[in-house]
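Aim 2, interim progress: modelling of the magnesium ion-bound target.
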Amino acid sequence: MKGITKRFPGVVALSKVSLSLARGEVLALMGENGAGKSTLMKILGGAHLPDEGQVLLDGKSVELHSVREAKKLGIALIHQELMLAANLDIAANIFLGTERASGGLLLPLPRRALHARARALMDRVGLRLPPHTPVASLTAGQMQMVEIAKALALDARILIMDEPTSSLTTEESKQLFSIIRQLKSEGMGIIYISHRMDEVLELSDRITVLRDGQYVGDLSRSDATHDKIVALMVGRELSGQYFPSRTLGAPQRPRLVVENLLVPGAPAGVSFTAHEGEILGFAGLIGAGRTELMQTIFGITPALSGRVLLDGKALRAESARDAINQGVFLAPEDRKQHGLVLGMSIAQNTSLPDIANYARFGWLDRKREQLVARQEKDRLKIKAPSIEQRVVNLSGGNQQKVVLGKWLAMNPKVLILDEPTRGIDVGAKAEIYRQMVNLAEAGITILMVSSDMEEVLGMSDRVVVMHERRIKGSVDRKEATQERIATLMTGSPTSKEAAA
Ligand SMILES: Nc1ncnc2c1ncn2[C@@H]1O[C@H](COP(=O)(O)OP(=O)(O)OP(=O)(O)O)[C@@H](O)[C@H]1O
Ligand SMILES: [Mg+2]
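Predicted structure of the complex, ligand included:
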């Protein structure tokens, strides 16, 4: 890609950016939230046209007017926000839009043959499920694997993955890496966007760094270090500690007491207590039941039995609205589906969950809405030309910040954060961690579901570990080690089941 420029109203997303990829090379593309990574890759994947610049494939200039054309040339893009058809099954999703693979003939394959081919591709990505499983029932991690199988079905020569591991567990990421290495050895060129430094260092042959829509440099694997990458990304040395330090006093009053709460589909009820001002981490593999548990507490899916006490009184949450009215908030893992109204502005999204409080004589108090939105935009350093920008136009990481901002604006009693920093760059992560500690120190209870072990260890006062929808135990900050948590996470029989 040579001299690529792309403008959006009010934003120059890319300015004269160049990028190259060799056969069999794994290139990491890095940069802070809003640096232009996804935009550059959407251009390569045919989803956006550049305003200037050209794309050369095997030395020949190509015009990529559509995703279909890019696919024909063997370029497959897996989006940051997965885009599967939720109403179809795995097999149908894998072959959706892959007429090329059937030689241009649109003969409907018999179901058996289709499923057999799907099965073979699913095996390559380690997806052990029946091909007729509806995609809607998959976890984020499994959906990612379907996306990769889909690209394999295309026989892609260039595979672009936009933050593929942000929703995967350590195990699944390892599996993905071995798939990537395999594809690399077959000569596929792979571009990989990630905010996770360790995996970039492990996986890539070369790293290209963008900052504010500009190309700032390349690092070869042998040159690259954590500090060098960060310095290129943020344009300065990032000083200080990553996780804020925190002095823990004696445990305060119980804030949220969960007693024998039976989540639909779970084998047994779960119990745990979260205290005032506590950051309670929830570790577990994807599918361990953490998100479901949080959704039940939040009133999205009703519990079959058991109860939840908030400050000693029953929390009656038959809907999310009920939970919110009582001071319990959830920032969900899948922001596109549950966290944001994409067509609305940053300001509108900020006031939405608390709209009653923005009413003045029956009218929306726009001044207050704008004041609060501006405050959250500054506090979380949301990158957008203004608070009137529609959320659909923000970069992935900045969307996540808007979700957090709208909850922070409401002074919650209990804040449930499901994968709070998924897809967020280093600088902003540190900022979110600082905010979390501030909130906890102000007495707010935080339940943090996280698949990022570093984050679980760095942020939690106590870690609750779940496995197959049960709580396997809880570990205090002082005793929390990666080994200990990992052992509980995999449901090792050596750990006795403990009430958290
Ligand atoms: N369709 C659009 N309309 C308007 N602005 C856009 C659009 N798409 C992207 N932008 C803007 O372009 C800039 C680059 O966004 P991009 O999504 O490429 O960032 P990114 O590097 O992928 O960030 P992240 O790590 O958060 O995913 C951002 O300022 C973003 O708000
Ligand atoms: Mg992006």
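The pocket of magnesium ion (ligand 2) is lined by residues 37-38, 80, 162, 395-396 (CB under 6 Å). Confidence is low (pLDDT under 50) at residues 100-105, 493-500.
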